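Narrative progress, year one. The postdoctoral researcher (J.K.) led the effort to move from monomer predictions toward full complexes, under supervision of the PI. The following entry was the first complex the group processed end to end, covering 692 residues in total.
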Amino acid sequence: MASTTAESPRQRVTSYDVARLAGVSQSAVSRCFKPGASVSRKMRARVMKAAEQLGYQPNAIARSLISGRSNTAAVVISSNTALYFPEILVGLNRNLAQRGVRALLFTLEQESDIDRLLDQVLQYQVDGMIVAARLSAPQIDAIERRAVPFVLYNRSFRDRQVNAVCCDQSEGERWLVDALIEAGHQRFGIISGPGDSSVSMERTEGALARLRELGAKHISVVEGDFGYHSGGTGLKKLRDRIGAHPDAVICANDTMALGCLDAARHEYGLAVPEDLSVVGFDGVGPARWTSYNLTTVRQPVSRMTEAAVSMILERVDNPQLQPEKRFFSGEMIPGNSARLAPAAAR
Amino acid sequence: MASTTAESPRQRVTSYDVARLAGVSQSAVSRCFKPGASVSRKMRARVMKAAEQLGYQPNAIARSLISGRSNTAAVVISSNTALYFPEILVGLNRNLAQRGVRALLFTLEQESDIDRLLDQVLQYQVDGMIVAARLSAPQIDAIERRAVPFVLYNRSFRDRQVNAVCCDQSEGERWLVDALIEAGHQRFGIISGPGDSSVSMERTEGALARLRELGAKHISVVEGDFGYHSGGTGLKKLRDRIGAHPDAVICANDTMALGCLDAARHEYGLAVPEDLSVVGFDGVGPARWTSYNLTTVRQPVSRMTEAAVSMILERVDNPQLQPEKRFFSGEMIPGNSARLAPAAAR
DNA sequence: TTGAAAGCGATACCAC
DNA sequence: GTGGTATCGCTTTCAA
């Protein structure tokens, strides 16, 4: 194993090494590795041969320093989201990679942890950031001052022009509520997500607003944490509060809805959807599994991640572009975890 | 919105700007941002004030170039793993972040896609790499030549000294097989993962070896893709091949096991575990959900990710360290998706 | 088309 | 403790 050190007396192979071996200037080597440069066939061949021989790869760090572009983008996302809906992270990274940009990953234990992170993100000179966490106005100011393009994923900012890609949460909740009301449900329970999650807030508020609009009288809201277990404990809290089980439970995400559904069936012996309707939001994989077949609204993740990446990269090339907000409608998926009026299956 | 450009005539604030404003040398500014440097209180105060005023943050790219450390590590992982077992990615990133290192994310559509990626990874001058994909011997050579510390996650390399953190797949499969045999199962089905996954191979081989060792006569193996649906189609293939349903199905991961379980119950009307036993591997979240309660072997993810990160960072500081392989035992989780002899519940 | 030389923005080493 | 200066490895004018 000592051979590895013996084999390579020089740790890093630079363009100077290649130039020396090929008998050309260092600038020539640089040009050979630049896509649209003007180099003679002969020169290119010699350089490439030398490079191969030495195992030369251009140093991306040095390139970034001079060119002012790092070809990296920060992806800031809560651990919860990464765990319960990994499709987003995978989708963002896939789209970035396809366009030659690497993702620098920042996960947050709490959505509010972003305060400490922002400085770090900017130190790394990322070309752009995709942020799936709640930013405050001063934080947005800070980013804009540094002139780093950013796009918010699934959160927007009222009274402020920022780039954002969102699933229309209110619309989705409206569909769900409409369908539930139409089917005659009366006592509603809502299990929200953690208090510092804006996605949870939008969904919960959206559902509440529509319920009130349609004249629902009995509504209880309890707080969950987006995790499976909090679906079950949420249902318990609702039963305790109401003194009976609600007719329908609206959960701020699918994972909680599945926990709620399991608790209803296996813990309380309720028939779903006959005794109790359960709906979620997201369209995660398990929601479609045969044991659940959850009624939910699916986020169009691949279109949304594609949009987020496009928006960010457009703005790297052209910082003058106006901020843009893109809203995507979800897709109502009428599973059989909720009693719905036939017409509601849109 | 035009105000943002007007506010910041100079895009980047450098240490020279801070030095000028504070009336000190540029080196002084640099020192103030270096943890253990010797700076007078007075100087530090002045510099920090100026830095704050200008919104200065040291440029990590420039720092990396001179210091030879980028404070980034590459995490190479298949999309499948990221989707079906996000705990690994989240765990790795959490541990890296705690120690001041950022993860540069590389996801692979196919485990074998790594060929094209390796050069890219190295260009970014990562301090180390954590690789959850199968590497070939020449690829390992290439990395070692570049003197970048790396650690394999859940794969090892026979006949070769490399750093690796592994869950002992064979041991886990042995536990499962022992328990199934002891409970009297006779006809076995195995649903493997994709052909290019080494994790799948180790698990499948491990189970097969033990089954043969214990004299099992009837064993069929079909290939899946680690996804939920391939659990169901795998079961179908097994039934077709055997002409009846097997007594027990051993799946190369939990997600397929859950698909298999659902198909058995809801598609074929089989009682699980009375008619059919199903076991998986990993210990993903849904395996513990009430609807499933899967018999499986849990990977100790948090210990493993912690180990992987420690190993890599130790070797960044001290490249001379000998390669090390760390095997972690899984934890047998006797759910009720399989009939097991009472004693087998270890 | 090619080569020489000037940076990019830090750190590190050296005198003082 | 502080300031000057070389340096990291590349891209990018600018002449030739």
